[in-house]
Specification:
Elements lengths: L2 E4 L5 H12 L3 E6 L9 E4 L5 H15 L5 E4 L14 H29 L2 E6 L3 H4 L5 H21 L4 E8 L5 H4 L3 H10 L8 H12 L10 E4 L8
Parallel strand pairs: 1-2, 1-4, 2-3, 4-5, 5-6, 6-7
Protein name: 3-oxoacyl-[acyl-carrier protein] reductase
Pfam families: adh_short_C2
Keywords: Oxidoreductase
Length: 234
């Protein structure tokens, strides 16, 4: 079993992933911006837009885990949705700096120990909109599409060191955010999904669980959609 760090693991998909990996028998630490306690989970504070904070979070996590991080699940992310013509530089840069550059900072810190160990798992949480596109989400879609290039570049660079890097791309998921959408909007979204429903967080967690497992040792650079068929062909 592995020592795992899940970024943004204090709620939603990240929390579901962390709890599934714990059930699988892994040692798990999660990050959140605040570092506030989460029932049943070890939490460290981390601001992924700051390299020093990322380094400190990994150091703290390594202390809790009793050794270097062997699997990184990069889930932390933000949205600032608005139409392109209304989107400010700050709206674009804040999302890209968190979702893409923040993930880069975490991956860079994680692979140092993985290269020495000649083993490691990296799973990046993207989104169906990264390849499918979404109006009002130019910043978010760009940041999530970038994760595919990141995973595939890491695969080509470090694959010979026993390190895998893969992407999980969820569609619409049953979270607090989707629950707040008007019922009419939810039904419109569901009508576009071949499965005619939103995903459960545990279904996303199941895909991550597989990619962290020994069974996925020869899978790298892959994009695993968990979207009910919404983005197929993209």
């Amino acid at each position: 079993m592995s020592r795992v760090l899940v970024t943004g693991g204090n709620r939603g998909i990240g929390e579901a992933v962390a709890r599934r990996l714990l059930d699988d028998g892994h040692q798990v630490v999660v990050t959140s911006r605040s570092g506030d306690p989460v029932d049943g989970l070890d939490v460290v504070a981390c601001e992924i837009t700051d390299g020093d904070s990322v380094d400190a979070a990994f150091t703290a996590a390594e202390g809790i885990l009793g050794g270097p991080v062997e699997a990184l699940v990069a889930n932390a992310g933000v949205t600032r949705d608005t139409l392109l013509m209304r989107m400010s530089d700050e709206d674009f840069e804040a999302v890209v700096d968190t979702n893409l550059a923040g993930t880069f900072r975490c991956v860079r810190r994680a692979v140092t120990a993985m290269v020495r160990a000649r083993s490691g798992r990296i799973v990046l949480l993207s989104s169906v909109v990264g390849l499918y596109g979404s109006p009002g989400q130019v910043n978010y879609a760009a940041s999530k599409a970038g994760l595919v290039g990141m995973a595939r570049s890491v695969t080509r660079e470090l694959g010979a060191r026993g390190i895998t890097a893969n992407v999980v791309a969820p569609g619409f998921v049953e979270t607090d955010m989707t629950a707040e959408l008007p019922e009419k909007t939810q039904k419109e979204y569901q009508a576009a999904i071949p499965a005619r429903r939103f995903a459960r967080p545990d279904e996303v967690a199941g895909a991550v669980s597989f990619l962290v497992s020994e069974d996925a040792g020869y899978i790298s650079g892959a994009v695993i959609p968990v979207d009910g068929g919404l983005g197929m062909g993209h």
